[in-house]
Design goal:
Blueprint (H helix, E strand, L loop, with lengths): L9 H19 L6 E2 L5 E2 L1 H17 L5 E3 L13 E9 L1 H6 L7 E8 L2 E9 L4 E6 L3 E6 L2 E5 L10 E4 L6 H9 L4 E4 L4 H7 L5 E4 L5 H13 L3 E4 L17 E4 L3
């Protein structure tokens, strides 16, 4: 894996990510209105407010590095650069709107270099779980109990736990789980699925439905730094900077 650019310091970005999460929670508690984007997906003022906080801070720190953000369609047209940021200010908007108490929505920030996700931050503000990682120092979780280094767990074949999308279950995923004799599945939204594998609460995350690079890059960086990997379905490594920033199917795994 490409080593992290020394000028990208996670500690300089964490306060902005926390601020974005705090703003999201303020709006979450006020029952925001919903808009529907051209692609049919929902967006709220929480997405836009969080994006403003994140983009402003990244530009302040790294004015010469391109930023591709979900809520900025113009950024989706940039040519793939050697290095760039991927930002999803509110991943799991559908879960955000459910108010189901699960809190499975996140703030995602990732730094890509040479097609690899080598720095990632995933913050679930409703759960007070903050995950972050880079390719040099490893992966960490900060929560009410402090900060700890995280890593994937050793998998027992008879007790494999998969994590899957709570909003995008499909036939291909169900068949994959059956074919791989995975009988226990935890359903949760957003990039938390990567993080649960990274911290040893699950073993594998298969995804066959459509995703975009800003959905996956931050969680992918954390999982890789924790000892896991993300593969295309043919076993090759998952890469970033693809055409239109669209992902194909993938398997995110720990010791699986």
């Amino acid at each position: 894996m490409t080593k992290v650019n020394k000028k990208i310091h996670i500690e300089n970005l964490l306060p902005a990510v926390r601020n974005a999460g705090s703003k999201i929670m303020d709006i979450y508690n006020s029952n925001p209105e919903i808009e529907i984007k051209k692609d049919g997906s929902p967006v709220t003022i929480a997405d836009k407010a969080a994006e403003s906080i994140l983009i402003s801070r990244i530009k302040e720190l790294h004015p010469n590095i391109p930023i591709v953000s979900e809520e900025n369609p113009d950024s989706h047209l940039i040519k793939t650069a050697k290095e760039f940021f991927l930002v999803d200010p509110l991943d799991g908007t559908k879960e955000f709107l459910k108010h189901d108490g699960k809190g499975s929505f996140t703030v995602n920030v990732a730094y890509i270099r040479d097609h690899d996700p080598i720095m990632g931050i995933v913050y679930a503000p409703a759960l007070n779980r903050l995950f972050y990682a880079n390719s040099i120092d490893g992966a960490f979780e900060a929560n009410v109990n402090g900060i700890k280094k995280i890593k994937i767990r050793q998998t027992a074949k008879k007790s494999i736990v998969a994590v899957a999308s709570s909003s995008h279950q499909d036939k291909a995923t169900i068949e994959w789980l059956q074919n791989n004799k995975v009988f226990k599945t935890v359903s949760i939204g957003s990039s938390l699925k990567f993080c649960l594998v990274a911290c040893g609460e699950a073993d594998v995350y298969p995804r066959f439905g459509p995703t975009m690079e800003w959905d996956t890059a931050a969680g992918d960086a954390i999982l890789r730094a924790a000892g896991g990997r993300v593969e295309n379905t043919d076993g090759t490594m998952f890469k970033y900077g693809k055409k239109n920033f669209k992902n194909s199917s993938f398997i995110a795994k720990g010791d699986f």
